[in-house]
Amino acid sequence: MAATPERDIAFVRLKEISPDEIIAHMSDPRVAEHMPLLTFKWDEQAVANFVETKEAGWRRDGLGHWAILCDGAYVGWGGFEKDGDGWDFGLVLKPENFGLGARISKKAIEFAKADERIAFVTFLLPPSRKNLGALVRLGAEFIEEVEHDGAQFRKYCLDTQ
Asked: What is the pTM of this model?
């Protein structure tokens, strides 16, 4: 049996992605199933606000969320956001690319381990997320149940040092 070829994963800025592509991604009801804070309709203004918010994070903290490409095609977004003394990692993939989550997360965590600013990474996962094996294999440990903007999440932490 032939080995499957390695796919190229790249992180680029969200402003490089067509707003229509982000609207289609974030309007998919399968994405909303795992995003309890997604309570509005995505349109061009929502995308403009979203991209500006993420760019502000880059300007403020020198790090933020990326658009994620696989073999040059947009598959979702994710990255790091400053949260108190640490960094929270989030990942939102297009449903047809959910299977890339472990590879993308591994690449992002390798980035975090090489960045001296990031001593640990937290992950906030909604209760709808049942398959947590990849997160545990990365070494993340459950910390506590938390409420964020009125929604419940499970908080995990990964030491990167």
From this structure: 0.88
